[in-house]
Design a protein that fits this description.
0% strand; globular; mainly alpha; Growth Hormone, Chain: A; 78% helix; single chain; 17 helices
Length: 493
């Protein structure tokens, strides 16, 4: 009985923690928003340093099998771990995506049942920084060790994203405010991205560093920048008590599995558009995310980019993504988040034809920045639209749980695009035409999204779903009040 009373107390406290904020004058009006903004700044170097590290790994992999001196028109047919050296990164990205798919379904529900949301956010951030710190030692004798970072860092980052999205969903109940927050977070991240990339590119040119030395420089700056920001931000995040209470003597894992099954049935019954949304992002999210996973391999293998050139092209993506995020916010207001997401899905697929038509090989260096700019705008706009849409349809008492499910659904097939590029590269198909296949999931997701109906249908079912969840919570409160009164009577006796 005492656990039921604790449940009531927890629900009451939860209402305080996730209470929606009034219309904010800006990000700095909300402490949680400030912390989220800092986390975005800390995440930027982690993502950007991946480009330089990936190119360095590809270079060292080719050197390890004696392919470093081949001409541009020559192909390395040697194998390492069963694939070409140029396929190492896409291979490990595919495996990493599968690991994430197995781990992510439970993470949100487990966090939802525990008071450790902030702790998980803090330690996942610290673990990622630690992996980047280990990768500072990359060299001809240690590059295979550094490849393991490519294997384990993404699942940790995805878990970190679960926590981030749960906090974002608690910022406001207004879709326009959520869009405002998300767009500002994204713009801040993009500004940090190209500031970091610009610094690395400038230093590499100033000191004439090679591919591996540039990667080491990027990791050093990344760790030195991200560690204090993450530490400061996550020590200031508010603690969030468990939103749901697990039965005594039941592990978090068991409670999470049971709750995920119930949630799946509830969504199918009470909110079919949300079910179709999750099916949609099986394909649309990988279409955007996979670009960053496949870009280093494409740039090094097809365009023969050096490490600093790969860093510069990543800079171009970030530069284009910033106005893309703002355009996504505007398009969400002019139309709605669902329509905006569909538009960007088609847009991202069409950009692959620009790649196939313009980028004929290493001689297309300059034209590659045109393609990169178009893709960057699409990525920035798409993720603002997707995040805004999901934040408006999730009931507040299922934030971490469904955000965990959301991150899982958006990452469950993230391995597909790297595997497609891996197959294309292993088969000897031109990578510029292969990028059309890499972006094909975006088009598939576009067609699946029509299972959601129109935006009014999505909102209508979302309101009914939230009302259903609120009625459940009210019933729990009433039951707990009766139990408390009965307990008081027993104590008197």
């Amino acid at each position: 009985m005492s656990s039921k009373i604790i449940e009531e107390s927890t629900l009451e406290h939860t209402n305080v923690v996730v209470a929606k904020q009034p219309t904010p004058p800006g990000v700095c009006a909300n402490k949680t928003a400030q912390c989220l903004l800092l986390d975005q700044l800390g995440s930027a170097p982690l993502i950007m340093s991946y480009a330089s590290l990936s190119v360095a790994i590809l270079v060292l992999a080719e050197e390890s099998v004696g392919c470093e001196d081949l001409d541009d028109d020559e192909e390395c047919n040697e194998k390492i771990w069963g694939v070409k050296p140029s396929s190492i990164i896409t291979l490990f990205n595919g495996v990493s995506g599968l690991i994430s798919a197995f781990l992510m379904p439970l993470s949100g529900a487990i966090v939802d049942y525990s008071p450790y949301r902030r702790a998980v956010g803090y330690w996942t951030a610290m673990s990622i920084v630690l992996i980047n710190g280990i990768q500072i030692c990359i060299g001809s004798e240690t590059w295979q060790l550094c490849v393991t970072g490519v294997l384990f860092a993404p699942p940790l980052f995805f878990l970190h994203t679960v926590i981030m999205n749960a906090y974002i969903a608690g910022l406001s109940d207004n879709p326009d405010e959520i869009a405002m927050y998300v767009s500002k977070f994204d713009v801040a991240r993009y500004i940090a991205n190209f500031s970091f990339v610009g610094l690395i590119f400038g230093l590499s040119k100033a000191f004439n560093t090679g591919d591996v030395d540039t990667a080491i420089l990027a990791q050093v700056i990344c760790v030195a920048f991200s560690f204090p920001i993450f530490h400061f931000a996550w020590k200031r995040f508010p603690e969030v008590p468990p939103i749901q209470i697990r039965t005594e003597n039941v592990s978090y894992l068991t409670a999470g599995c049971k709750n995920l099954y119930k949630t799946k049935k509830e969504i199918a019954d009470k909110n079919p558009p949300l079910k179709w949304f999750f099916r949609t992002i099986w394909f649309t999210s990988p279409g955007g995310t996979a670009f960053f996973l496949t870009l280093p391999t494409f740039c090094k293998t097809w365009l023969d980019f050096s490490t600093d050139e790969a860093v510069l092209v990543t800079f171009a993506v970030s530069l284009a993504a910033a106005p893309g995020a703002l355009m996504g916010k505007v398009l969400c207001k002019i139309t709605n988040p669902l329509t905006s997401m569909r538009i960007y899905c088609v847009y991202l697929f069409l950009t692959s034809f620009i790649c196939a038509a313009l980028l004929k090989g290493p001689e297309s260096h300059n034209l590659s920045y045109v393609w990169i700019s178009f893709v960057g705008v699409g990525i920035g706009g798409y993720f603002v639209s997707e995040t805004t849409l999901v934040a408006t349809v999730i009931p507040e008492d299922q934030q971490a749980e469904l955000m965990g499910l959301y991150v899982f659904m958006s990452r469950v097939f993230v391995w597909i695009c790297p595997v497609i590029l891996l197959i294309v590269n292993e088969r000897g198909i031109d990578l510029n035409r292969g990028m059309v296949l890499v972006q094909l999931p975006s088009l598939i997701g576009f067609f699946i999204s029509f299972g959601m109906g129109n935006y009014d249908n999505v909102i209508e079912h979302s309101v009914h779903h939230k009302s259903h969840r609120e009625s459940i919570r009210e019933s729990i409160r009433e039951t707990n009040m009766v139990n408390r009164n009965n307990l008081s009577v027993e104590e008197v006796k």
